[in-house]
Amino acid sequence: MVQNFEILFDRGEPSPADDPAYAPYGQLGFPRPAADRPWIYSNFVQSLDGVASFKGRYATGADISQSPEDRWLMDLLRAHADAVLLGINTLLEETSLHGDRGPAYTIEELPLQQLRRKLGRKRETNIFVTGAAQLQLDRYRVFDGDLVDTMIITTTAGASRLAQKKTHPNVKVMVAGEGNIVDLPRAMRVLRQEHGIEYLLCEGGPTLYGYMSRAGLIDEKFLTISPVEIGLLIPPEQEPSEAEKKNPPKERPTTFMAPGFIKENAPWWQWISCRRIGDHQFNRYRRKASA
What we know:
The chain is of the alpha/beta class and 291 residues long. Helices cover 23% and strands 21% of the residues. The protein has a 10-stranded mixed beta sheet with strand order 1-9-10-8-2-7-3-4-5-6. Strand 5 (149-154), helix 5 (156-163) and strand 6 (172-175) form a beta-alpha-beta unit. The longest helix has 12 residues, at 68-79. The protein is globular. The protein starts with 5 loop residues before the first strand and ends with a strand.
């Protein structure tokens, strides 16, 4: 049973529909998107010290949040998005951890599935970004097409590699960029102008998010702060996952794992809303326009 969020303050837009599904959270709306790209918002959970994953056998955000409300909020944000954007490493890591051909990244809560339809959103769509495209699609459940539509954004080289492998006929491939580097601004323009995607939820991971933010492509971020302290350096007693055993990482990721900013170009954010449940804090920030 999801508890009601305590609203500390909220300066966001009103909800686009009157629906009881909003009751636990309160209002949630978004500005109109620009004509050239979607309105893009992200969603992360982090520890008090800014860490996004334990790594090892407990590498998901759920291991940090341990909050049914945080999982419910993910579904609420997915209900408002035309598509969800994910890095391919997120899929590979979560499949390695949980097996069974990995997750499908779908809305689980029935009232939020119904809200999505009421908002006029089409079938759920997951978009994966990969420059190298070194994967066999039939090994992953998300590409089966029975639960969600899928798209892969890659480069000319990545598209060539995918063409040499067995692919599912329902998986769309978009080419944006050369070599192994995806042209993210170009990809976002194509999503808006050719695929009609107005609202895009970026669920990361931290590397994809970092490069999206560096390119000025993140408009808003929803950030859950879990009341746990983890530490950046992985302690020697932590057991690595199967995928890590050959080359165990020494550090854990933060929510931003790309080259950072300098003082002159670091983006600042406006604090739009704050909610709490117990000791968990649920924040929303909107990127301020550059001076």
